[in-house]
Amino acid sequence: MVNEALQRVPNNDGNKNIDQVNQIRESLAMMGNNSTAFSLPQPHLQRTKLCDMKDGELDPLYVKKREQLKELVASIIRPKLVQGKLLNGQEFVAFLEQILDALNKGEIPSTGSLVEVFNKGILERCVKLYSESMAKLSLPLPELSLLDNHERSRKRAMKTFDEQHFGRTHAKKSLMQLEEEIEKAYKNVVLVNEYRSAKLCEALYTRCEDKMDQLQVLRLPSMAKFNAGFLQCNQSFEQECVGPSKANYEQRMVKMLGKSRSLFIKEYNQRLFNWLVAFSLVMVVVGRFIIKFFLIEMAAWVLFIFLETYTRMFWSSESLYYNPVWHVIVATWETIVYSPILDLDRWAIPIVFVAAILIIYWRCYGKRKHGSRWLLPLYSNHKGVSNRPRSD
């Protein structure tokens, strides 16, 4: 009877509902190989009052068949024995409720829970494998490079999980959890990369800013030295600053360098002019009182008069700085002050100190020992002394 009821019904018209019922029949047939069918007649015509009726009011055939069903069920099943005690219906229901509560709370291991526990250890090892791989990176890194390393480490962890995991349905849950853990770890790495990138670029920016401030206050203004420091600072920033903060600090760097360069150029010509004026006055004093070399004093006076009178009378400050003569002076100054061999701004004080010692030595001891043998005109120290031979 059961086998007949579970047989497929022909569906020549292709009705979807019949197809669904046939699928249900096939599923039931696969699940219930050992099944027994038992039919009961209708207890009473008034179905809505069945719960209030007693056995005497029901159809006698129904009552007879019901008793036969009880005997059949009793012959098939066996009473549940728990701790040496047979359970009745109510006790068995209470026992089932306890089992369901324990299963829901996870106190009783099931197939799914065992698979989850087994896969949990594998999941933790895969997450650890990913974390160790990312920890070996030398941060900060560019964003694309960090993403490439993340993808490689993620694929390695996923491959390890695929090779070692157990089960299908529960493995999917563990796989989703593994992806969540990897994404969480990757976000932490991204935050660390951003922090270290900002810290590194900030240090480089501050170093370049200090360097530009130092170049603004050179003892001897030199455009060549400023350009060399400017280029070195820019190159070091481009090479060493990496990571997501580089773009932001590049914009700040361009503004800062441009501002420093404009300020230096603005003050460069005026500072150089002042230095030349001071230099001419110093050489006047040196030629007049120290070396006592007439030509040095005259050249210094000519330079001083040219800078202070001629340029102010015939040239404005703007036209002076664009004049070819001024360009020659600037080129000569740059050659003397800064070169790959000698940085006069750095060694000016030691050179002046050594020169002062040599001059003092020459003034105190050189003239006494060797006398004065200048080939060029010097100031005479014997004014009013007659050159006539002394008579007795």
TrEMBL record:
Parts forming coiled coils: none
Transmembrane segment boundaries: 347-365
Superkingdom as given in the UniProt entry: Eukaryota
Residue span, Guanylate-binding protein/Atlastin C-terminal domain: 84-213
InterPro entries for this protein: Guanylate-bd/ATL_C, Guanylate-bd_C_sf, P-loop_NTPase
MF annotations from Gene Ontology: GTP binding; GTPase activity
Keyword annotations from UniProtKB, A to Z: Membrane, Transmembrane, Transmembrane helix
Family matches, as Pfam families: GBP_C
Protein name: Guanylate-binding protein/Atlastin C-terminal domain-containing protein
